[in-house]
Amino acid sequence: MNSILVAAHGVSKDYPIPGGGAVSVLQGIDCSIRANDRIALLGPSGSGKSTLMHILGGLIEPTRGTVSWPGLGARADLQPSKVQFVFQSPSLFPALTVARNVALPMILAGGFADAHVRANTMLERFGLADLARKLPEELSGGQAQRVSMARALAISPKLILADEPTGQLDSRTASEFLDTVLELVTGSGAALVIATHDLGIADRMDRRLILAHGNLSIPREHLELNS
């Protein structure tokens, strides 16, 4: 059985609101992510998908409950080499070229003497080689999303958390993009979690988790996959 990378138990997240009080975004979430998992995280806008992924990846702490990373180690050691995020909003460094953006996590992690070679190879895999010398401001939204995924995968992380990575792509480009992502993670032991509204993307993942009103549910046909 594949090892557990992340485990969440009773995770809730509250955010303060002006004038006092708080709004609860997540309520008592229990879930785990194992090596080689392919998970689609579904739910309406504002359901807490991004918040849950940020908690699972160690970026923010839950208000209540616990998160552990038995297959990854201490929270302080998760980024950049073990966990990589692909954010919904732009996250490329504006002063760096596309190639340098992709190489940056490898440089920060150390031990990647071939960081720039790996960066250019990854851009080629995503059909983005002609963008290597461009700055982020010269990219379309869809191009920036693909570059962000190339950056995430170049360092060979154990967990990839992607928030609407195909949101600005047409259906054909999104399908080709996912082809490349799945090909690159196959055999690596990495888990891939994609928050998406695209049921075509969700259909190609092994499991679905559904967030609604702060609660997480698992479709009946996927229950046995979470056991």
The number of helical segments is 6
Point out poorly predicted stretches. 221-227
- CATH superfamily membership: P-loop containing nucleotide triphosphate hydrolases
CATH topology: Rossmann fold
Q: In CATH terms, what is the architecture?
A: 3-Layer(aba) Sandwich
Strand and helix order:
EEEHEEHHHEHEHEE
- Helical content (DSSP H or I, runs of 4+): 25-40%
Q: Roughly how many Å is the radius of gyration? A: 17 Å
Strand order of the largest sheet: 5-6-7-3-8-9
Cα end-to-end separation? 11 Å
Describe the 3D structure:
Helices cover 28% and strands 26% of the residues. It has one domain (4-226): P-loop containing nucleotide triphosphate hydrolases (Rossmann fold, 3-Layer(aba) Sandwich). The chain has a six-stranded mixed beta sheet, with helices on both faces. The protein has a three-stranded antiparallel beta sheet with strand order 2-1-4, with helices on one face. The protein starts with a strand and ends in a 10-residue tail after the last strand. It has 227 residues and is an alpha/beta fold. The protein has helices at 49-56, 98-109, 115-125, 141-154, 171-185, 199-202; strands at residues 4-16, 22-34, 38-42, 64-68, 83-86, 159-163, 191-195, 207-212, 215-217.
Throw out a few tags for this protein.
alpha/beta; Rossmann fold; 6-stranded mixed sheet; 3-stranded antiparallel sheet; 26% strand; globular
